[in-house]
Amino acid sequence: MTRAKSTLEQWRILQAVVDHGGYAQAAEQLNKSQSSLNHAVAKLQHQLGIQLLEVKGRKAYLTEQGEVLLRRSRHLTQSVDELEQLATNLGQGWEPSLTIAKEIIYPTEKLVDALEAFIPLSRGTRVTVLDSVISGTHDLINQQMVNIAICATPPRGHLAQPLCECDFDLVCHPDHPLAQLDVIEDEKQLAQHLQVVIKDTGSNSMNDIGWLKAEQRITVSNFHEAKVILGRKMGFCWIPNFLVEDHLKHGKLHKLKLHGSYQRRITLNIIIPNRDRQGPASRLLESLISLQHGIEAMTAYTEKAKA
């Protein structure tokens, strides 16, 4: 068996030097001396027989060969980190904390139902719930910043288990000009009015929730703010039915009928960003969330059968 010429520690040091822009900055972040980092990278280059970095001024830059090897080394160190994390979970058992990313179109009551069942069994596990929108949820999943995620379209490379469906209604204030139309025959009629949309929480995305052809829009962070704006007889908005059901029932909002598309439906899924890192507390909470929707589906089926 051939013995490796380099160590994981050397590759981690190289990554730190590149990520932080130089030896001095990396030394500060790693709490090591600058000379020890210089020595580690120099030894790595000597062992490999390839120059990985070249220093220009006070900054270190990757060579072309260094860029290729650094990219491959990130996969290697990430795999080792995940392996060590798995071993930690197996050794320690129950997780002290869990973080859940939840699309804002997912009914909070359903998650609370699951948490109500989880808390007595949680062994003191702290739970953090993050509201997110579209690519914001994808960011949290891809960066493995959460233990459990509930979102619509899953990011590439992640398996998803369907939980429920969310119906959206197109609504406005009963006194809004659009409410005077029995049916909106053409989307161009909508485009002439103000639209309220929900902002994507992703760091680099321009995607928002809603049909986006209106020339004038107000973008807000959640549906509560959207309903406040609609209450002032301003604009229209696609909003989950469970959030406007009472408003429609009591005449505070009006449901618009758009020819060919008066209602929209989205499937929400549960996703575990990294199964290898999932501990027993996460598995329990995942099963309780899924169970809530299984009970709901069974109840709906029973009521339908009785009818």
In short:
This protein has helices spanning 8-20, 23-30, 34-48, 64-92, 108-118, 135-142, 187-191, 223-231, 241-249, 280-306, and strands spanning 53-56, 59-62, 97-103, 126-132, 148-151, 161-172, 195-199, 208-209, 217-220, 236-240, 254-255, 263-271. It has 307 residues and is α/β, with parallel strands linked by helices.
Topology:
Layout: H1 8-20, H2 23-30, H3 34-48, E1 53-56, E2 59-62, H4 64-92, E3 97-103, H5 108-118, E4 126-132, H6 135-142, E5 148-151, E6 161-172, H7 187-191, E7 195-199, E8 208-209, E9 217-220, H8 223-231, E10 236-240, H9 241-249, E11 254-255, E12 263-271, H10 280-306
Helix pairs in contact: 1-2, 1-3, 1-4, 2-3, 5-10
Keywords:
307 residues, alpha/beta, three-stranded mixed β-sheet, 44% helix, transcription, LysR_HTH_N, DNA-binding
The general outline is elongated
**How can the largest sheet be summarized?**
7 strands, mixed
Total of DSSP H or I helical runs spanning 4+ residues: 10
Please provide the ordered H/E string of secondary-structure elements: HHHEEHEHEHEEHEEEHEHEEH
Spans where pLDDT lies below 50 across 5 or more residues: none
What's the gyration radius in Å?
Answer: 26 Å
Q: What is the terminal separation in angstroms?
A: 71 Å
Helix and strand content put the structural class at alpha/beta
Estimate the mean pLDDT confidence. 84
Protein name: LysR family transcriptional regulator
Keywords: DNA-binding, Transcription, Transcription regulation
InterPro entries: LysR_HTH_N (IPR000847), LysR_subst-bd (IPR005119), WH-like_DNA-bd_sf (IPR036388), WH_DNA-bd_sf (IPR036390)
Pfam families: HTH_1, LysR_substrate
